[in-house]
Design brief:
The protein is mainly alpha-helical. The protein folds into two domains: 140 residues, Serine Threonine Protein Phosphatase 5, Tetratricopeptide repeat (Alpha Horseshoe); 99 residues, no CATH class. The protein is 58% helix and 4% strand. It has 13 helices and two strands, in the order αααααααααααααββ. Strand 1 and strand 2 form a beta hairpin. The N terminus and C terminus are likely disordered.
Length: 277
């Protein structure tokens, strides 16, 4: 997970493997569990005592394979693996969520929406289905409605920088830089976070400052571990600021600048140094 920032570093026992696989079925929550599970106490980490679910253990290798294929956007193969999981436990929540993810990425948004609504009926307080219902609006280019859904979700999860980051991107998708900048201010922290850096990169890329945007993305990769911000990078791709397959990003022709974030001044992007953790 994300390193070196306690607010973004949950702890999980082995019994939480299914959370990661459920998130792999979501349009953008691939491999990210920050918003969905409570931290596990250290004692539970060391000596998990939960009873083993035999169905879950049977599903585990299939859903792990599904997660890898889904993350690689090999949806036809992922669907074939999911067929096998559905034959074992068609009503299992993780399996159902995975099918919704396949529908969403295949453009079958109504089918995906119906599944997420059913999941929400079963778990009215769950973050993931609410997040993905908002995400489906963005995938359908309903940016005003998606932003409204995210703002409503932010009231329930006020500490979620993921939601703030997504709201910032909805404004950029509508070419509304003025309203995006205050959301970047909300992402700023005394020390860098993935959301702050990717929000800064989004502003730079929006201003066509491609080198600065890539440098900031690379700073995030260096600070928090390579390949761990794919969720945030894919969100940039959803609004056309980067190419989805360009992750992790290649090094630019010049070395990355020190940890930095763009500051908006008269329509141009300038670099402002950030303190390191």
């Amino acid at each position: 997970m994300i390193h070196d920032h306690p607010r973004l570093r949950p702890r999980f026992s082995r019994r939480h493997w299914y959370i990661w696989l459920a998130l792999a079925a979501c349009p953008l929550l691939t491999g990210r569990a920050e918003e969905t599970a409570s931290p596990t106490p250290p004692a539970a980490e060391a000596e998990p005592t939960a009873t083993v679910d035999p169905v879950a253990e049977q599903l585990k290798p299939l859903l792990t394979e599904f997660s890898k294929l889904f993350d690689a956007r090999r949806f036809e193969e992922a669907s074939e693996v999911l067929d096998k999981a559905e034959a074992i436990a068609p009503d299992h929540e993780v399996v159902v969520s995975a099918r919704a993810g396949i529908y969403a990425e295949s453009g079958k948004l109504d089918e995906a929406r119906a599944i997420y609504k059913k999941l929400l009926e079963k778990s009215p307080d769950a973050f993931v289905p609410k997040y993905n219902l908002a995400e489906l609006l963005l995938l359908d280019h309903q940016f005003d409605q998606g932003r409204e859904a995210y703002e409503k979700l932010l009231k329930e999860f006020p500490n979620s920088d993921l939601i703030r980051y997504k709201i910032l991107l909805t404004h950029l998708a509508q070419k509304n830089l003025k309203d995006a900048l205050p959301w970047l201010d909300q992402l700023r922290q005394p020390t860098p976070t993935p959301f702050m850096l990717y929000g800064s990169a989004a502003i730079a890329l929006y201003n066509a400052d491609l080198l600065t945007g890539r440098r900031i993305i690379l700073s995030a990769e260096q600070l928090f571990g390579p390949g761990r911000q794919k969720l945030l990078h894919d969100s940039l791709a959803e609004i056309g600021l980067v190419i989805r397959g360009d992750y992790p990003p290649a090094l630019p022709s010049t070395p990355p600048a020190p940890d930095s974030t763009p500051e908006e001044t008269d329509g141009t992007t300038q670099l402002t140094p950030l303190s390191t953790p």
